[in-house]
């Protein structure tokens, strides 16, 4: 169960050596079974840290990752984590880097099956590999080839076949299409949607591409410097964002319906997590920042079905987006 009780909840804090770098702090979200939750934000905001923590690659220094009702961040041995790992797979940004170049595709796809002892070698395994390759749009004969013999899109199909091999419930997709040509991106995203429908998969989608998020996500969370600043229904956030950071993030994306509309600029770089700004971490870049913002970190408040961490939202001094658009 992923749903309400208990939720897929995480409170993550990562440390690097003696000087603690809090890559991610106080990030809580739930992902409903069979749905897609997208995490968006600029690079360095902590999205990949969350992906790696949930996937068990990087343990949290404190806090919990609850998966199907079990806190899985406390596993100390590979053996204890195995039943959970079977249910949770990952698709990475660069399919080539994540596929062993010396292994044939059949062996790559078989690996999770053998690791989790779902089958031993033999005719049934060969048949299962052929089935997995067909499911992702490849041919059973491709099992004998090596990764370098495929295009980028085909290699991502191989990664997806491998991710599906252990019959997982949940797949963490870290920028699954950002290394691919635009024309190929849509094919991979549509394949992912089809697989979700047919297999009831749950996705955590890490992406900085809002078009990808709009295409895929049911719910989304916006991250800034290791914190979730806004989360809620994806359609609603993309249509009517509340947090000033989300508004600027959306405004930097060209609107195909209004190509000449002047767009706001998201100025400046993401500050270093080694020296995060005081108060609201976004205040040096925020057009609505005031003295309180530089002093006091905003706490998440509920606005309709969304959660937003912003003093301006809480104080009701957020300009209405409709009025902003009229003035342009
Ligand atoms: Fe801007 Fe202040 Fe809201 Fe932070 S809390 S986003 S600085 S208005
Ligand atoms: Mg990343």
Task: Explain what you see.
This protein has about 325 residues and is an alpha/beta fold. The protein has 2 domains: about 35-220, Rossmann fold (3-Layer(aba) Sandwich), CATH 3.40.50.300; about 240-325, no CATH class. Helix content is about 35%, strand content about 15%. It contains 13 helices and 10 strands. The strands form 2 sheets. Strands 4-5-6-1-7-8-10-9 form an 8-stranded mixed β-sheet, with helices on both faces. Strand 2 and strand 3 form a beta hairpin. Helix 4 packs parallel to helix 6. The longest helix is centred in the middle third of the chain and has 18 residues, at about 180-200. The radius of gyration is 21 Å and the shape is elongated. The termini are far apart. Mean pLDDT is about 85; it is low at about 1-20 and about 320-328. Iron/sulfur cluster (SF4) binds near residues 283, 293 and 310.
Annotation field: number of helices: 13
The beta-strand count equals 10
What's the main sheet like? 8 strands, mixed
How much helicity do the residues have?
A: 25-40%
Mean pLDDT: 83
Specify Rg, calculated over alpha carbons. Answer: 21 Å
CATH class of the largest domain: Alpha Beta
Q: What global shape is seen?
A: elongated
InterPro entries: AAA+_ATPase, ABC_transp_ATP-bind, ABC_transporter-like_ATP-bd, ABC_transporter-like_CS, Oligopep_ABC_C, P-loop_NTPase
Keywords: ATP-binding, Nucleotide-binding, Transport
Subcellular location: Cell inner membrane
GO molecular function: ATP binding; ATP hydrolysis activity
């Amino acid at each position: 169960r992923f749903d309400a009780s208990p939720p897929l909840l995480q409170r993550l804090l990562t440390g690097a050596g003696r000087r603690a770098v809090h890559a991610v702090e106080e990030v809580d979200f739930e992902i409903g079974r069979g749905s897609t939750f997208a995490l968006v934000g600029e690079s360095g905001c902590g999205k990949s840290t969350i992906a790696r923590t949930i996937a068990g690659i990087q343990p949290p220094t404190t806090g919990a990752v609850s998966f199907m009702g079990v806190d899985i961040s406390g596993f100390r041995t590979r053996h204890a984590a195995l039943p959970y790992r079977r249910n949770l797979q990952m698709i990475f940004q660069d399919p080539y880097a994540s596929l062993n170049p010396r292994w044939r595709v059949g062996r790559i796809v078989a690996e999770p099956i053998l690791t989790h002892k779902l089958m031993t070698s033999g005719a049934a395994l060969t048949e299962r590999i052929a089935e997995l390759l067909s499911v992702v749009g490849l041919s059973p004969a491709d099992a004998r080839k090596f990764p370098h013999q495929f295009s980028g899109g085909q290699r991502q199909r191989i990664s997806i076949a491998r991710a599906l091999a252990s019959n997982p419930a949940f797949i963490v997709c870290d920028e699954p299409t950002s290394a691919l040509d635009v024309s190929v991106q849509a094919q991979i995203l549509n394949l992912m949607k089809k697989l979700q429908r047919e297999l009831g998969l749950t996705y955590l989608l890490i992406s900085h591409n809002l078009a990808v998020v709009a295409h895929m996500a049911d719910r989304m969370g916006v991250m800034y410097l290791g914190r979730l600043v806004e989360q809620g229904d994806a359609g609603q956030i993309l249509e009517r964002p509340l947090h000033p950071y989300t508004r600027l993030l959306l405004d930097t994306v060209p609107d195909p319906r209004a190509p000449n509309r002047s767009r706001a600029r998201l100025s400046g770089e993401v500050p270093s997590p080694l020296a995060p700004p005081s108060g609201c971490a976004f205040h040096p870049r925020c057009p609505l920042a005031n003295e309180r913002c530089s002093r006091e970190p905003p706490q998440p408040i509920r606005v309709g079905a969304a959660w937003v961490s912003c003093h301006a939202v809480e104080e009701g001094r957020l300009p209405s987006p409709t009025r902003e658009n009229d003035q342009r």
